[in-house]
Design brief:
The chain is an alpha/beta fold and about 425 residues long. The protein is built from 12 helices and 21 strands. Helices cover about 25% and strands about 25% of the residues. Helix 2 (about 35-50) packs parallel to helix 9, helix 5 (about 110-120) crosses helix 6 (about 130-140) and helix 8 runs parallel beside helix 9 (about 255-265). The N and C termini lie far apart (about 55 Å). The structure holds pyridoxal-5'-phosphate.
Length: about 425
């Protein structure tokens, strides 16, 4: 819970709108975002960075809904993309191609062409082979590709191994020891223009020290490059700042930025950051309804209408999301006189919160103490990042609707998918 998602009179709200109203109007499962929360996160970055030239490139993969990208674009954001599809989303959302950095280890020729035609700020190059491909493609269409090398600083981000990216054994970036020679090589390639350097060491980091360690190593390289006559226009220190899901205590945005600025001291290069999760994670919840309560011999299950296809993080990373009842009114005392309490009676118990998908890994939360009925609405918190953007159609489940709350207004920002949309491209053979 935060300033934007909270209880009032035992009803859970997003800004000024009770979630029960959203469920009644748009159905469940449904992602609910707070525009004010999105704006607030972005402003914290821009205020902390105001003393120096900077660009905040929101990581599109954390949440790529056009309305969300548009909120950030209007605040002056740039974007960090990892595919041609994300570039198209940024452009469709009103983002500026000249503020786009393109990361990722597997950029295709078609994606490189599209990004060159659009005129992006730079390619965050992740290998020597990519440098060559970029040079060739740019030459073939008469363009010069702006290049930053993503350097792997070999720093332990101390996060989940699946979202740790800055260690030698990871697939990301170019090795630290090879960086200078690769820059020299890039300098000699005719269709490249060196503009910067970047790193991104992982996601959901809850301490500042690995960021600082990585920054120091990158800055040492910047000096080495300068000594070799290679001057950079920008330094991009990536994203990765964590959020509170459960009992984590990540640094505040301002403290994190201040710590980074401390490492940069008098340098004049523009600072780029690529935050994702921290901007959107706690700006969204997943609203779901209990379908069945199943009281087993060893465990009690609350089977809800959201599943691993809607929110994959628990199944993928064993991630924790807080789950709260949308209506937490104490249930009226059931007495024999009140007759058959029937289905509506609340069952206070320890539940496994699971979805309808045919996988044991399909859970949203383990061992949650909840007082609920079949039909209760639940809010799965901290679902704004890597929720909808990682969703799938497994079990032919149409993707959830998405809405954005803005004060007392609710806007549908993505319609619930239909099953017809899911198989529209499929053909039965004769
Ligand atoms: C995913 C990613 C980000 C954003 O990471 P968060 O942990 O969501 O802040 C930034 N940069 C790159 C290159 C990424 O791959």
């Amino acid at each position: 819970m935060n300033d934007y998602f909270y209880y009032q009179d035992n009803q859970f709200y997003a800004e000024q709108v009770p979630l029960t109203e959203i469920a009644a109007q748009f159905g469940t499962p449904c992602y609910v975002y707070s525009r004010a929360a999105l704006t607030d996160g972005f402003r914290q970055f821009s205020e902390a960075l105001q003393s120096r030239e900077h660009l905040i490139c929101c990581a599109v993969k954390a949440n790529s809904n056009l309305a969300i990208l548009n909120v950030f674009a209007r605040l002056g954001a740039g974007f960090d993309i990892v595919s041609g599809g994300e570039l198209q989303r940024v452009l469709a959302a009103g983002g500026d191609a000249r503020q786009v950095v393109f990361s990722g280890v597997g950029k295709s020729i078609a994606e490189i062409c599209m990004a060159l035609e659009a005129g992006i700020l730079c390619f965050n190059v992740e290998s020597e082979a990519e440098l060559d491909r970029l040079n060739e493609v740019a030459g073939s269409i008469g363009k010069i590709a702006p290049v930053s090398l993503r350097v792997n600083p070999d720093v332990d981000a101390k996060t989940h191994p699946y979202i740790s990216t800055g260690l030698k054994q990871n697939k990301f970036g170019v090795p630290y020891d090879k960086a200078v020679s690769l820059y020299k090589r890039a300098r000699d390639l005719p269709y490249l223009r060196i503009t910067g350097i970047d790193c991104h060491i992982g996601s959901q980091l809850t301490e500042t020290s690995p960021f600082i360690a990585a920054a120091e190593k990158i800055l040492a390289l910047v000096d080495e490059l300068a000594a070799a006559g290679i001057r950079l226009e920008h330094i991009d220190l990536g994203g990765g700042l964590g959020i509170r899901y459960n009992d984590e205590t990540p640094p505040a945005i301002s403290d994190y930025v201040t710590a980074l600025l401390g490492t940069l001291r008098e340098r004049s290069e523009k600072l780029i950051l690529e935050p994702g999760r921290v901007l959107v994670g706690n700006a969204g919840v997943l609203l779901t309804r209990v379908e069945y309560l199943k009281h087993g011999e060893e465990k009690n299950f609350a089977i809800v209408d959201a599943a691993m296809n809607d929110l994959m993080r628990p199944a993928l990373y064993d991630a924790f999301h807080e789950i709260l009842p949308v209506d937490r009114q104490p249930s009226p005392q059931s007495s024999p006189a009140s007759g058959r309490g029937g289905e509506r009676e609340r069952h206070s118990s320890i539940y496994e919160i699971v979805g309808p998908i045919c996988e044991t890994g399909d859970f949203i939360g383990h061992n949650r103490n909840l007082s609920i009925t079949p039909q209760s609405l639940l809010a799965v918190l901290s679902a704004g990042a890597y929720g909808m953007s990682m969703s799938s159609n497994y079990n032919t489940r149409p993707r959830a609707a998405e809405v954005m709350v803005d004060g007392n207004a609710v806007h549908l920002i993505r319609e619930r998918e239909t099953v017809q949309q899911l198989y529209a491209g499929e053909k039965i053979i004769l």
